[in-house]
Amino acid sequence: MHYKDGTLAAIGDLVRGRGYNLKHEVQGVVVGLTAGAGSCNIHVATLRYTRPGGDLGLPYLATYEEHGTCAEFELVHRDPSLTPKPDAELARAAFDAYGQSTGGKTWDGKDIPPFEVVAERTPHVARAWEAASAAVRKLLGR
User: Fold this and answer.
1) Would the pTM of this model clear 0.85, i.e. be above it?
2) Rounded to an integer, what distance in angstroms lies between the CA atom of residue 85 and that of residue 56?
């Protein structure tokens, strides 16, 4: 999943764009990415101005999660520690290509979860894909 300029999207990025539920552009932090979804694949935590009902008329800021299409957002800032390493990007590309070539199924016929889920639940598997990508890159002399 990529932003308007083609940059790979990542959890924790500060982004700006227009989602589905608000009529104006929002800026916030990416808190969710849904790989494989053509739309509604980015979740951005943002603040919005709210005025509660009842006798309490004081306005305040509330956290709001806006959903949208990743390609409609632009990257504003990424913490350098969150920048994917080349092997991580290659691992994700290889993982996605594997999933596409198998119809989204594992060797035993189970659905392949998105790479983010694999990296979160079984980090050793994500590291194995990175190691395999690094070996291919080394073999190619890159």
Assistant:
1) no
2) 49
